[in-house]
Amino acid sequence: MARGENHICTGCRAQLPYTDYHLLPPTDNPLARRFWGKVPIAHAFSYLRFLRRGRVQHLLHQLKYRGQRQVGVVLGEWYGAELRQHGLHESFDLIVPVPLHPRKLAKRGYNQSDCVAEGFANGLQLPWHAYALRRTTHTSSQTSKTRLERWRNVATVFEVATPESVTGRRILLVDDVLTTGATLEACAAVLLTAGASSVSIATLACADR
């Protein structure tokens, strides 16, 4: 690391596979299309493309399994600042991370999505709320499941813990990676039911379907 570099060197940053989805109109955004007919999403963004055995997978594994929380904060800050530069901060009132079940939180020691939310909040210069959503049921890992299995696994396990924090507000729902979108879809649905005026989605990475 050179002086001034923060957790990710400039050389690696230059070679990351950026999506630039935030530059596309919603109708042309392939990420937004994943949610069509399932749950109304105002915006859908993802910073990087997730490729197996690639740089992004390595970074996310460091964040999720190796205790490198600052990776999530730094990437979130970079992307949040880029979204703000394009005026997208004006579309949101509050940033909400996807929650972990208390059992998994106790085992891991932190929620990687909180790190991402903190970074987005810094970059977008918006508030975030770690406890707006709650996961009520401990579920098995989503990693090897089909989309239908993933949906069934999470369809009824989220609830809004603080309805007053989301009612009438434009929520930016954030997570580390989007695969099928089942978890984000379930979270968005309960936020809208609780009275959020709109829900948008942003992740650090997305996997191609």
TrEMBL record:
It comes from the Bacteria. Transmembrane segments: none annotated. It holds the Pfam family Pribosyltran. Residues 150-205 form the Phosphoribosyltransferase domain. Signal peptide: none annotated. SUPFAM superfamilies: PRTase-like. InterPro entries: ComF/GntX_DNA_util-trans, PRTase-like, PRTase_dom. Belongs to the ComF/GntX family. This is ComF family protein. It comes from Hymenobacter profundi.
